[in-house]
Amino acid sequence: MKMSDRKKKILQIVVDEYINTAVPVSSKNIAEKHLTGVSSATVRNELASLEELGYLTQFHTSGGRVPSPQAYRFYIEELMQKGNLSEKDLDYIENSFRNKAGDVEHLIKDVSKVISDLTDYTSVAIGPHDEEERIRSLAMLPCGEGKVLLVIVTNVRILRDTFIDVPETMGDEELRNASQVISKLFEGKTLLQVKDVEEKVLSEFGQYRQVMSEVIEALKSYTHPRDEDIVLTGAEKIFNHPEYADIENVKNFLTVISSKDKIAEIIGDEDDEIQINVKIGSSGDADVPEDCSVVTATYSAGGKNLGTYGVIGPIRMDYTKVITVLENVGRALEDIVGSKNKDKEDDPK
Amino acid sequence: MKMSDRKKKILQIVVDEYINTAVPVSSKNIAEKHLTGVSSATVRNELASLEELGYLTQFHTSGGRVPSPQAYRFYIEELMQKGNLSEKDLDYIENSFRNKAGDVEHLIKDVSKVISDLTDYTSVAIGPHDEEERIRSLAMLPCGEGKVLLVIVTNVRILRDTFIDVPETMGDEELRNASQVISKLFEGKTLLQVKDVEEKVLSEFGQYRQVMSEVIEALKSYTHPRDEDIVLTGAEKIFNHPEYADIENVKNFLTVISSKDKIAEIIGDEDDEIQINVKIGSSGDADVPEDCSVVTATYSAGGKNLGTYGVIGPIRMDYTKVITVLENVGRALEDIVGSKNKDKEDDPK
DNA sequence: TTTAGCACTTTGGATAAGAGAGTGCTAACA
DNA sequence: TGTTAGCACTCTCTTATCCAAAGTGCTAAA
């Protein structure tokens, strides 16, 4: 059966209406408020047909219709109308990122907060994770008691939460030299390439083999996203949506998003080609919790990957709003980070 | 009216029973299972009397009795029996902290997780916040593009999330010298003392006044706990407790603990004299959410303050278990951090 | 192809009845 | 004076029933 234009129109009305009201949509409602040319009986026939096609479902005979996941997917692909943000929202975005181009880590939290505030959904984010991330320099900073802080500067971010034990015999001067040697050794390499030279490097370091080994372990550990790279903002926002009036749903939701590993799974395996990505629960996307939708966008600016950001919420999500917000945030980031970098583009051959 | 021994005994039974079962306790239950010497009618008389004294309340005439906040307070002060942890739990604590003496920041998360796991409540923690925290050294590390990472080593922790803009004219060598000068300038000072010398220091730095000013701002900002210093673990644990079968309660709870500021308020204003601190909601402790209890302990070892840790949950909390866990965790921390430091005690005169 | 009309289904709210649990009180007892 | 058995009373919780409201599916006519 082909989808007539009227069927599409009606499907769009049902999805829009259900997203707005969270109440199953009846034929009478459609005929009276949205499609005044025809009678409710006609709409009923169309609705029955759309149900047969798998786009609509009914909880019970007299309960109106509700879109199926398939309907949402169709809606996003073909029916949805692009929205615009209010002047106020646009200002909010811009002011939030102004003067924040500096360090990517803080930016993740800010971006996540903005997205959660504007969409009214729980926001998830995962920091930059770029196979091409290249080491620029390493430094070891004495912190007393035979401990040093290993700071790794890459073209994307500054990694600084690894502490390494060093022999107490190593003085400050010696440490500084070692820093320079190690820095030279890895400069220009991607984090993934570190393990290729591991053997060779280790064999050359007789005396400080132990230290070197810890440095290499640290470098390797950053190839996977860490808990610190995963941010969750606005978990309490789910209470604003009626599907979470049921305690069981809240419990499932919170249990999933309380685990950073789970969040990483949900938003982690992006296809890099796609800028905005919608996953709808119970539909082959095994990672996404049942009855949840996840909309994410992967941002980059000035050649830098800036991470993946998005929202997680009920399937009945305001996709128009969410996608509009994600797009605008992306543009704002590009403006700010991009302009920051445009006069100092670095090209790691 | 005086509290007879029997009244105390009965109050203890009521609190214990209610903590275990979450069901209002009846006179019959007490007389049959816990106080087999007397009849339920006798117990009833005592219960009526305890209610008059303000220790018990009834939801309705035929509903059994429930302890009042006052009863919990009395229970904690006088009635509660010290518990012991299982061999398994003790092992878990010890293994979790082994080899973790290094950096305090990671320790906060680990400790918080252990507490939440063992008690089955949501754990809150706030990092070291010590008025006596003294600066040992400062370093500025070039990160490219006119940015430097400011690393502050104190006797308690290593602070490393401030980036500072420096004139691009400043070379690496110059930076290193500046680091040393600034380091000398503040060495031995507490973070609170920084603002006393602010004027003087700034006036001496003509050329790099801007950089210096940013350094000082950073130092001052660390005197207050930051969001990063506040950790929340196991928010989903509340679903394991029947008082949170009501969505409204969950909403209140989550809304409060979603705000780091609120958490800081709740656990922040400890009286340093008290090692273990119990706050019961709706009882003058205005910060604590209605119907919630917060039990916290402030740890220190080897002269270092290690932060404040605790749990937040329903008033009907297993105080014995919670306090036992907090005490054991405290001892484990003392062992590990203390022994680490014992041969390198530093005494900042 | 569209529509009016109507029977049918399901939900949700209101009401009532009865069982169950626990108390308070009284009177008897040690 | 303290303790206890007995019993009436209160309140909740569950189940059943009824009724109105909402929405659909189907049929027959335009």
Structure commentary:
Chain A has twelve helices and ten strands. The first copy, chain A, folds into three domains: about 5-80, Winged helix-like DNA-binding domain superfamily/Winged helix DNA-binding domain (Arc Repressor Mutant, subunit A, Orthogonal Bundle), CATH 1.10.10.10; about 85-130 and about 230-340, GAF domain (Beta-Lactamase); about 135-220, 2-Layer Sandwich (Enolase-like, domain 1), CATH 3.30.390.60. In chain A, strand 1 (about 55) and strand 2 form a beta hairpin. By secondary structure, chain A is α+β, with helices and mostly antiparallel strands. Chain A has a five-stranded antiparallel β-sheet, sandwiched between helices. Chain A has a three-stranded antiparallel β-sheet with strand order 4-5-6. Chain A has a two-stranded antiparallel sheet with strand order 1-2. The interface between A and B is large, with 35 and 36 residues.
Index terms:
3-stranded antiparallel sheet, homodimer, 349 residues, disordered C terminus, 5-stranded antiparallel sheet, Arc Repressor Mutant, subunit A, 18% strand, DNA-binding, alpha+beta, elongated, Enolase-like, domain 1, 10 strands, Beta-Lactamase
